[in-house]
Design a protein that fits this description.
4-stranded antiparallel β-sheet; 415 residues; mainly beta; 1 helix; 5-stranded mixed β-sheet
Amino acid sequence: MIAVLTACQPAKAPAGDTAGESALQDSSPVRFTEHLIMDGYAYPYGIWAADLDKDGDLDLTSADYTPANDLYWFENDGSGTFTRRFIQKDDPERLERHMVSDVNQDTHPDIVIVKNLYGHLLWFQNPGKHDTRELWKRHVITTRLAGAYSVAVSDLDGDGDPDVAASSWRMGNQFAWFENPGILCNGPPTQLCYEEGREWPKHMIDANVAETRCIRVADVDGDGDEDLMGTAAADGLVLWYENSGDPLSRPWKRHLIDGEVSRPAHGNPVDMDADGDPDLVLALGMGAGSDGEDRSGVVWYENDGTPGDGPWPRHTILESLPGAFEAVAGDLDGDGDPDVAATAWGPAGQVVWLQNPGNPRSQWPAYSLKTSWPRANMIILADLDGDEDLDVAAVAEIGSNEFRWWQNQGAGAAE
């Protein structure tokens, strides 16, 4: 069990906003109850959800950097009550965004994480037996990605094991991928072993792209291999990179999704219009507006089946969300189509959810989950209480330093 990160026939058109402005409404058609997971962080950024102990429910992970320098996992009792455990203690400087994947294919989910600033990618090996006092074994993927910022994990070269793609923020200004060097060893039939001290081979995807942030995996062109989607905030670029099918010998082809937006931040692939191919939901504006002009919001980009012929049509979900940081998609109201939840960064941070109106090109009703929550950043959707609907979890850093989740209790007046 892994977290969900989650029209009419389109005509090709230049990227441009459609639909009208969605103001936040007071009364939500879905009732959410807020719960605190942990407060008192030094600086939280980076969360995920997965069944780490293989007991059938979704646990949570969370990074906490300087001066705490810790990586936690929160054991779920099945109903959404969490007990904190440690994956790593005292790993100095900026453990941040991460993703869960079975890196060594021993059937236990591991964690791939950035060590921002130092420029490292690490993975922590799930011990399997879950002695709550035992820290997970630490492995280095690379020390050669200055400003390591975000990761995505998938089999990029088609050899059957998970590789890692990463962005590198403004210190590295690049996208790169790292080839899993594991070899079969004794254990489960697919288990991989690693040479101690050997870093993973690094392969460049794109260099000299200003302030790379989001990196996500999807088969954008439907050819059966894994492509990549990414943002370059300082360049105002939303991009996808076409996997050649043999990325070890042939380069990734860069395609434009949008090149005319301010500060594209974080988003996720989702089939928004139910046509069978991945679209992209994205938050725009984190760090923008210093000149007083609001250029923030939440949008989705339409993959019309010819994704190489960009830019993609851009559709507005929420016209204004100052400091918009990350957007994720999933069915929150149980009607079968993907809704969106998003965070806003800055001193007046907040969390909102946006209801898919059925035709995602039309106006989306927008509802607040939390206001006055400074520097809300990463957000995920996952069924945390085992009732088969999606809940919302998010963290907020300086000014809040909290990890919270919002329990989806179905249709009814908001509490």
